[in-house]
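From the methods appendix. Each design record in this collection lists the tokenized structure first, followed by the designed amino acid sequence. Records were kept in a plain field format so they could be parsed without special tools. The example shown here is representative of the layout used throughout.

RECORD:
FOLD TOKENS (180 positions):
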């Protein structure tokens, strides 16, 4: 009996420690490029274009990337795609690339319909191994669509799940392109 009581007391003490449970929402609006992180992407991570051609992230080394992870069934994606199209049209930097990764099955009717009616001006890829994708982009499990800003050395510098602000991203991209 004493062991059971001690066990429950121990669990209660652990549960009230700082960092356990949900974070308190302080009501402050976060910026679009919200969380600064420093994590290297595995250059061997494979993604595939819609024709089945494999690309490893090493192909994009030397460029600043905006990695967008999404699914066609998420209601906010069409509006976010409009922002991505604007970003692609406004950014003429040759060392900047949007890497848009769909979590959908590319052969599903829902994906095909969404893709074919979206008039996309940037490259769309799929991941055939979402567990490997998750190892590199761990935050996407919390909310999609989401965005990662990646520097020329394949290091994730920023993460956002709060929507895309084109002007802010353009400024961030310029700063990363200017880094040596």
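DESIGN:
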């Amino acid at each position: 009996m004493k062991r059971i009581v001690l066990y429950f007391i121990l669990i209660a003490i652990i549960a009230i420690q700082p960092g356990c449970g949900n974070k308190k929402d302080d009501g402050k609006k976060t910026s679009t490029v919200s969380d600064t992180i420093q994590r290297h992407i595995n250059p061997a991570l494979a993604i595939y274009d819609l024709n089945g051609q494999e690309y490893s992230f090493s192909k994009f080394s030397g460029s600043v990337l905006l990695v967008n992870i999404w699914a066609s069934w998420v209601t906010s994606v069409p509006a976010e795609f409009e922002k991505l199209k604007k970003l692609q049209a406004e950014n003429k930097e040759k060392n900047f690339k949007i890497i848009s990764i769909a979590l959908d099955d590319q052969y599903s009717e829902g994906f095909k319909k969404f893709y074919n009616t979206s008039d996309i001006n940037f490259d769309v890829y799929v991941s055939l191994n979402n567990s490997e994708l998750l190892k590199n982009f761990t935050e996407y499990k919390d909310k999609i669509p989401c965005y990662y800003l990646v520097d020329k050395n394949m290091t994730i510098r920023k993460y956002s799940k709060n929507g895309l602000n084109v002007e802010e991203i353009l400024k961030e991209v310029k700063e990363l392109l200017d880094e040596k």
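APPENDIX NOTE: Confidence is low (pLDDT under 50) at residues 5-33.
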